[in-house]
Amino acid sequence: MWSTAPRLIVAQQTRWVGSWPVCAPSLVPDTPNTLLATSPATGSPTDLTTLYAAQDKDYWYVGFNVSPGATGNIVYGLYLDGDQTDNSGANVAPPNRPAITTVSYYRPEYAVYVVYSNTQFLTATPKSVALYRWDATAGQWDPEIRDLLDQLQVGGGFTYDPTSRYAEFKLPKTAIGDAGFSPFMLSPALFSAAANTATVAADTVPDNGQNVSIFNEVKSISDRLSLALPGDNSSSSAPALAVMPFIYAEAGNIDWLRGTRLQIYRDPIFNNLLLEQLFTCEGCQNYVDVFQHVYTALRLLEDNTLYWRYTIRHFSTSSLTAPLCPNLEYYSPPSEAHVFVKYGPAPSNLRVNDNYTSPTFRWDDAEGAGTYRLQWSPNPDFSGSVGEVTTNHNSFTAANPFNPGQYYWRVRYENYTGGSYASDWSLSRTLVITLPQVSVTQPAPGAIVSQPPTFKWLPVLTDTWGTPYARVQIASSPTGFANPYEEVVVDTINWTTTRSYPDGTYYWRAAARDTNGSDGPFTAVYSFTKQYPVPTLIAPLSGGRTGDYPEFEWEGLTGAAGYRLQVATNAQFSNPVIDVSTRNVHFIPFAKLNNGTYYWRVAMYDRDGRQGPFNDATLIVDPLPYRVYTPLVRR
Which has the minimum average pLDDT: 246-260, 425-439, 523-537? Predict the structure, then answer.
């Protein structure tokens, strides 16, 4: 099945001939490319062969050649359609005029009539060059017929050169609906008729044949760019664009081109201006240039249905050939609007690198974004406490850590180059901020240590986060962390206590802490047993004999601040005869020991006076511990 056939109007680019005689001394036909339409010559008195059209800043000029055989009375009628809209304009001829009509797409809003009699046009009497206006509201021709030649009423003109047999209407733009601020395209249709009572046209130009009552073919002429991209003139088919498009228009040969003006509006009747951009083309050539009218905004425009149009900027400047031409600038009517829907996407693909207290928020780049605005809140509707930051990157890492908890976050992009734009917010994402759990490595679970231990754990490192602090707790029972034996916060991955620990079993755990003082989850509870080592006794040996001033000696221990030596006559050390503390690793009693069997032991103690376990041995005190045996010699 064929698609619906759209309507296409091809219009000729008008030539500008100037309003000042010193600038445009020639008639329109002497200006190239002003011939709009032709019709085959028949040689009849009513024959029409040419239709010329041109303009300047104030007037349209429409001319034609009178048949060389013109004689008698001939009525010439000129229909003028300015909007090319279906069923817009007159569907009947003005009263008491030839009954000629047009196809529905080119119904005229204005009509001009003049009568040729024998060798000249009749222009001397009032309203001999009559201008009619169609009243769209009343659906009829305005009863007031205006005189084109009346300088106060209309201010137009009509000229005829008998030599070239060229006749020309000078039509004030404002008198035929071309006010300059709305799109305007002129579609003239000229016919000749034998009398005002005629029901058919004797001839037509553009050529619709002879003896016809309806114009089916009409030519158009305009002074505007042809809008190409984006969109078209239908809101129903307007493209939806996420970013600012290239705005592209094409043009033919343009006279006196100074530049263009681009306007983008928020409404189809062009009341609410969003952007206006002037382009100046100093010294540019008036030739077709496909890149001459391409533009994209440096900033993002608001999300809206937008209507855009171009206006041509013309100028006249003095030159050697026309030194008196004034240096002025004037604008063509705007082009018909094209429409597109700008609806920029909100940033997408929102994600975070980790959910620790300094997460990195990331999202995909958006074309045209100048900055991104990031918001986070503990409330899904972003009420109450809302954190906010702007960045010109598509990621953000908080300088200050988040408190653990649940957050909602979203992003939009903005652009403030030459204006203000903000996209819709992205769909919000949920982020649960936690701190990682560290992994402990030392002391091993259930370890027995002889010295206050060094506690170690593995750091937590990501691309954007590292454990800044660790909180370590040591307790004397598995449930005693409310009142720990020792607790520290350090910025390292290991810690050695400076306190001494009594021998016993201890329990410990660790947690990551951020710079806000928020703690992550604690590790499981691990235990270790602290027990100082027993000194190794050197002398006297267990069971050995010694004199009554024995010298006690043992090996030193790391971490010992001193040693406690006990000597007793029983293994229970219930009544020691020596109980001294010394910083040395040997001891000689000040008083001699009586003969007998003794027990001795040594224990270390730390700088806090906490004592380790004893090690013990026996010895025999003998007044003559050193005996000399003489060998017996038998003969």
Answer: 246-260
Of 151, 195, 204, nearest to 42 by C-alpha is 204
pLDDT higher than 90, residue 328: no
CA distance 221 to 176: 14
Contact 318, 324 (CB under 8 A): yes
Assess contact for 229 and 248: CB atoms under 8 A: yes
| Residues of the domain holding 74 | 11-222
Residues 6+ apart with CB under 8 A from 182: 333, 334
Residue 283 above 70 pLDDT? Answer: no
Are 279 and 194 within one domain? no
- The predicted pLDDT at position 611 comes to 87
Boundary of a domain, candidates 342, 374, 398: 342
At 272, the amino acid letter reads: N
pLDDT of 217 above 70: yes
Q: Compute CA distances 310 → 100, 182, 265, 268, 275, whole Å.
A: 35, 11, 12, 14, 12
Q: pLDDT confidence of 502, banded at 50, 70, 90?
A: confident
Q: Work out the percent of the chain whose per-residue pLDDT is above 90.
A: 48
Beta strands (DSSP E) in 120-252 are 120-121, 130-135, 140-141, 146-147, 157-161, 166-172, 185-193, 203-205, 214-215, 220-222, 226-229, 240-241, 247-250
Q: How far apart are CA 134 and CA 75, in angstroms?
A: 20
Distance, in Å, from the CA atom of 289 to the CA atom of 279, rounded to the nearest integer, reads: 15
* Sequence-separated (6 or more) residues with CB below 8 Å from residue 546: 540, 619, 620, 621, 622, 625
Task: Report strand pairing: 328-331 vs 304-316.
Answer: antiparallel
The pLDDT value given to residue 554: 92
CA distance 92 to 523: 95
Domain of residue 399, CATH code: 2.60.40.10
